[in-house]
Amino acid sequence: MRLVFLGPPGSGKGTQASLLEERLGLCQISTGDILRQAVADGTPLGREAKACMDKGALVPDRVVIGIVRDKLASGDCEKGFVLDGFPRTPGQAEALDAIMHDFPASIDRVVAFQVDEEALVTRLSGRRTCEECQAMFHQTLSPPRAEGVCDRCGGRLVQRNDDREEVIRERLAVYEESTRPLLKFYADRGQLIRLPAGGPVEDVHAALKTAVGL
Ligand code: AP5
To answer: Which site among 26, 107, 147, 153 is 20 to 30 Å from 184 CA-CA?
Structure first.
């Protein structure tokens, strides 16, 4: 199964993609995670991406398109994949069509995660991420056993640079302007599923599996 996850920041794309990877073996391809790793490694790609990410802007299309093309060409997603956070612009959507043209199968479903804006801000402003293994927690919604310490690996929990409230608002505005138009693009093709995603993680996971036929 090959899925695309669309949705505003904090709507749970990464959480659900990671569950599908863990439980069903679908490969999670998160452009945000790949870019954050490049920033942490101090690569030329990371240096170019950091300035955009820190202010909540999108990284240029040519950069993220190259990342996705390389990942899909690597052949390590045999059981299928979830594109988590890509495409995000009309240019990226066209590039994905071109990439899939050379691929043995097509995108099955495009899932649009739907969550109220205030809930998004609450989720993101309280999110804490492990510096070592990238596991995600929330200060109040899913707190770690010991404050500031990852349950999974003992690493330090930090706040992402772009999870400060003023940057969250900018990311939401960028989503409205650049990414929301893709909902119509995929709806017109009959590929879009709108998924109410404001409930608990396991409820959303169950609804997602039913919606896409997994
Ligand atoms: P990216 O990392 O993709 O961030 P995002 O889309 O803003 O998404 P988030 O990771 O913030 O949210 P999410 O929807 O995955 O929710 P999550 O599961 O994490 O991108 C970051 C930056 O990279 C961009 O701003 C841009 O600069 C750049 N970038 C990335 N891709 C790009 C592209 N294609 N083009 C250009 N630039 C690109 O959950 C959020 C929180 O909510 C967590 O704390 C989680 O525990 C909690 N939570 C999740 N689900 C639930 C639930 N059901 N109930 C309660 N809490 C929940």
So the answer is: 26
